Amino acid sequence: MFSKIMVPVDLAHADRLNRALQMASDLAHLYKAEVVFVGVTTSQPSSVAHNPKEFAAKLDSFATEQAAIHRITALGHAVVSHDPAVDLEATLLKACDDIGAGLIVMASHVPGVRDYLFHAHGGRVAEKAPVSVLVVRES
After folding, report:
1. What are the C-alpha distances in Å from 69 to residues 12, 72, 73, 103?
2. Distance linking the first and last C-alpha atoms of the chain
3. What is the DSSP letter of 118?
4. What is the pTM of this model?
5. DSSP string, 15-71
6. Alpha-carbon dihedral sign for residues 113, 114, 118, 122
7. Would the pLDDT of 66 be above 70?
8. In 10 A of CB 44, how many CB atoms?
9. Do the beta carbons of residue 9 and residue 61 sit within 8 Å?
């Protein structure tokens, strides 16, 4: 049913993605699918990497680590955005199209007051994605 599963990851908060990573792994085993971890960065230095090349290397390392842990086929796909806070959803949707994903597995957080004023990224991606989106709530 799905041959490629896209999993957006924020490397700065990779330790908070356990449930989404496990769900993506389970689905990858079920459908014998490849998992593509998509990370969005800026061209400016960040807390994760000094430049996009270093970010891409860290994302590839993360994908290799997850592939070994979960025994799946995985790779990283780094995308540079001018302002991820503004265009994250559009950037992720373009990445979905670029890699040919058939499913997006995305982590979310427990809603708070701020979410009633600003929509969560997962909800906006699910509204606009041309493929199925599974939003996994992390505790």
Report:
1. 19, 8, 11, 21
2. 29
3. S
4. 0.91
5. GG-HHHHHHHHHHHHHHT-EEEEEEEE-SS--SS-SSHHHHHHHHHHHHHHHHHHHT
6. negative
7. yes
8. 10
9. no
